Amino acid sequence: MTPTEIATAMTGRLTAVSQQRIEAFLPSPKIQNHAAFLHLLPDGALICAWFGGTLEGKSDISIHASILSHEADSWGPAQQLSDDPDHSEQNPVIFAAPDEGLWLFHTSQPSGNQDECRIRMVALTRDPLDPLRLSTGESRYLDDLPRGCFVRGQVTLRGDGAWLLPIFRCVSRPGQKWNGSHDVAAVGVSQDGGKSWTLNEVPASIGSVHMSPVAGKNGVVPAYYRRRQADAVHVSLSQDQGASWDAPRPTDLPNNNSSIAAIRMADGRIAVICNLASAQSSTDRRASLYDELGEDDDRPDADPTGGCTPIWGVPRSPVAVCISDDGLHFPIRIVIEDGPGTCTSNDSTDGRNKEMSYPWLLEGPDGSLHIAYTYHRRAIKYVRLAPGWVATS
C-alpha cells in the first residue's frame, strides 16, 4: 500500500478478513503513527494509545488514543492526550491501579536525545457521557528517576502491592551523542501508588531494553527484552516477584533491535509478539535511530567501549506471535503479517518505510487475541483473532 492508500484506509472501521480474523487501520490526523499499546477496560472496551506527529524525535510528536467499544464495528476518533511544544512525547503505557484509577505513562525528550528523556505520569478518565472520550489530569515528571529513563512495557504489581514500571536507561557518555551503546534494563518501583519512585537495575543487561514482564508461574516471573545488538530476544527471571532479576540470556527467537511484547496466556503458556528477523538475516543498516532529524549536533557518537555496538536498520517484518511452554524455546510461530519491513528511513510520507513493528498483544477473557502494530510508520493497524486462534492458525 502507498502512503495515500493507507491514509484512505485509516477509518477505524473493522473488516472481517476471514471467520477468524478482523482488521482495522486506526483513525489519526497525523502523518506518522508509531508504538501502539493496548489496554482492556472492565466493560470490554479497548484503548489503543500511540504517538503521532511528523517524525519521531520532533517536538510535534504527542500521545494519542482511540477507544473501541465492546461489540462496536469501528474505533472511535483519535484524541490527543499530551501537548508539550518543546519535547517529543513517545511510548505510551496505560496502567489500571488496584484502586481502579487509570494512569498513562509516557516519555518526554528533547529532539533525539534519549539520554535526556524524562517520564511523565498523568491520570486518565473515561467520560461517562461519551464512552469514546478520554480526559487527562495534570501530568508530572517522575523526577525521582534519573534522566534517560524510557518506558515501553506494562506495569505490574509486586506481591506487597508495589508498582513495578519496566524501564530502559539510555545512558549518556560525557561529550558524546546517545546511540544506544550503553543502554541497560531497570525497574522503577513505587510503594506509595506512584507518588515516589526508586530504580533497580537488571544486572549484566547492556543492550537489553523494552523489558516486557509476564505473570509469574510457580513463583518465577520472566521478562523479555529487545536487543540493541539485533541478535535474539532475551529473557531474565525473578525468583522474588520482581524484587530482583538475574542477567538476561538468549531465547531461540531472533531480534532486529525492534520492540517486542510478551504475555502469559490463560493456558499458562507464554506468547511473545515480535519481528522474526535479526542482523544475520539482512545487511540493511542505517546510521542511527534519529539520523533524519536534520538538527545540528557536532558531538561524536558514543564510544561503544564498555557497552555494545547497536545495530540499526534491520528490516522490521514479519510480525509473528510465538508460543512457548518453557519460556526459552518458541516452536509455534504464527505470522500475522509479512512484507519487506524496510526501515532505513523513518519517513512515513514517501513510501520508503515499509516496517511492521512495535507490536502489542493481549488476550481477551473469551480467548480472542488483540494485536496492534505500526504499519509503514503511517498508521496503527489492529488485528483481532477469534477464540481458538492457536488451533486455527
UniProtKB/TrEMBL annotation:
The keyword Hydrolase applies. Residues 44-371 form the Sialidase domain. GO terms for molecular function: hydrolase activity. Keywords: Hydrolase. SUPFAM superfamilies: Sialidases. It holds the Pfam family BNR_2. PANTHER family: BNR/ASP-BOX REPEAT FAMILY PROTEIN (PTHR43752), BNR_ASP-BOX REPEAT FAMILY PROTEIN (PTHR43752:SF2). This is Glycosyl hydrolase. It comes from Paracoccus aestuariivivens. The lineage of its organism: Bacteria, Pseudomonadati, Pseudomonadota, Alphaproteobacteria, Rhodobacterales.
